[in-house]
Amino acid sequence: MSSRRSARASTGKRLSYREDSDDGDAVEDLTEDEYQQDRASTSADDEPADQTDSSEASQDNFDTKRSANGSKRRKLHSSSSASKPPSKIAVSGSTGDDWAPGVTRVVAKLVGPPQSGHVARGELSPNVLKFLADLQANNDRDWFARYDAVYRYCWKNFGEFADAVLNDIMEKVDDTVPWLPTKDLVYRIYRDVRFSNDKTPYKTNLMASFSRGGRKGPFAGYHVLVKPDGRSFFAAGRWQPEREDLATIRRHILEDTQEAQALKAAVSEPTFVKWFGEPKGQLKAKSKSKGKAQATNPQRCNLWGGDDELKVAPKIEGVDKTHKDIDWLKLRSFCVIHNFADAEVLRKDFRQRLVEAGKASEPLVRILNSMTSPDPPPPPESDEEQDDEGSDVESGRSRSHTGVGTRHDYGNDDDDEELVPTESFDYVEDDEDGDDDDEDDDDD
């Protein structure tokens, strides 16, 4: 009897613990440690009891726990449904409860692609200049992510324009420029800021290059850059060539080779001067006649006036500031530029204007490539080709000597018969019996 009373006392102890938990705010079950500790204490109290009393007590304990769990689940469901706030949308920066449960927070409002300003394929849309102007005022990643659809629209439009310009250059300007895919022509809009003090992530222009290697490779070529505020331009030539190529160009100038003479003549052509300005020698003479005020305000003209031009003579043996070609030897870039206003860029004949500028600058590009990247010599002829050429020469001599084209009796000389082509025979041999071809005519 004492053991049964102890078992019932332990059961009542657990029930009182559960009831106290239900009265408070705690709605969770016992932890594993508490359950094991409670179970150990219960089993220690039940050790003197017999097996039948222990089974009855455990069954009562199980029924009590089951009823307690059901009541707690009902209580938890009722409390969660009562505390759930209504769903709402909070705009970023409105209140301090933006991240509350059930609240949808608007991080950024995305901008869709342009709905107007569409043009024909191969023409530039005014949306391109507008996007670049807005990017110049908001050059950060958050703004760019919001206007991603506008950027993709402008990128596609400029890519189609670059493809059309490539076809124009290939057909009307320079046949050495090959066809290349758009990704090899157009430069990426993302800046490389690893070694730059300017950490703005994006360029504020769109540019494409047309050369033997596209936008890559050590070749002179043609370049088109689109930038708002009248800073779009067409450029041609070679910008800052590598050390070896620059040394090669300077060597041609020092030795006054045919390529150097052709280069000096090309930049002095009237059409070239009309598009890109006069050479520095002619510009100096005009500036002296107009006064020193104009000479103290240098501007980019022809090949000269760039930021990378040397101020002193280059470190070349035998070259000083009095050298007759010192202006040419100071150059580090052999590139010319012609600027276009925004209105000119958006005109329908803008591509035709680029073709005219390309034709004027084609001699410069061709001469620079001949200096630094000359065409390879033709491959040597094989022995078989040389033998074939020798036999053709001998055959020609024999034909001229024998007078092919007139009737001759070649006799029984087999060698002569081999040298005479079959189509040169314009007669029919007689039959073996000496008869004519009357029978053949009759058969026909």
TrEMBL record:
Give the span(s) annotated as Disordered. Answer: 1-96, 365-444
> Which ranges of the sequence are coiled-coil?
none
Here the segments flagged for biased composition (Acidic residues) are: 20-35, 381-392, 412-444
- Superkingdom in the source lineage: Eukaryota
Q: Where is the composition biased (Low complexity)?
A: 78-92
Q: Could you tell me where the Polar residues compositional bias lies? A: 51-61
Cross-referenced NCBIfam families: TIGR02453 family protein (TIGR02453)
The identity of this protein, by name, is: Uncharacterized protein
